[in-house]
Amino acid sequence: MAKEEELKKEMEVKKEKKIKKALSTFNKEFRKSTNTAIIAAFGFLIALSWKDLITEYVNVLSSYSPLQGQLISTLIVTTVSVLGILVVTKIFSDKQEEEVTKEVTKEVKEEKSNLKKKNEK
User: Fold this and answer.
1) pTM for the whole thing?
2) Domain range for 58
3) Averaged over 12-20, what is the pLDDT?
């Protein structure tokens, strides 16, 4: 009887840990998604403000150039955007690799401690 109760308690503890881990993962992902959405909104705002400046600059250049102003504007915006994407991707990929490494290390340590506890019983 005591072993059955002990097993039930152990299963309940495992369920609680799984639930807590799932909630923790959900909270992390929710924060990441919210953060991404906010950053995207600010990026869009910045892009709109730069659009006006670039349009004025292109209008000045287009008076000297046989090319149409829209083509020059598109090329400038595309170049700046691609460079920005490359920089941001590099920054975030390094951070994500560090986070994954930390999580895996933590899980391995937890598994080792669980195995030691089981072996001691």
Assistant:
1) 0.45
2) 2-120
3) 87
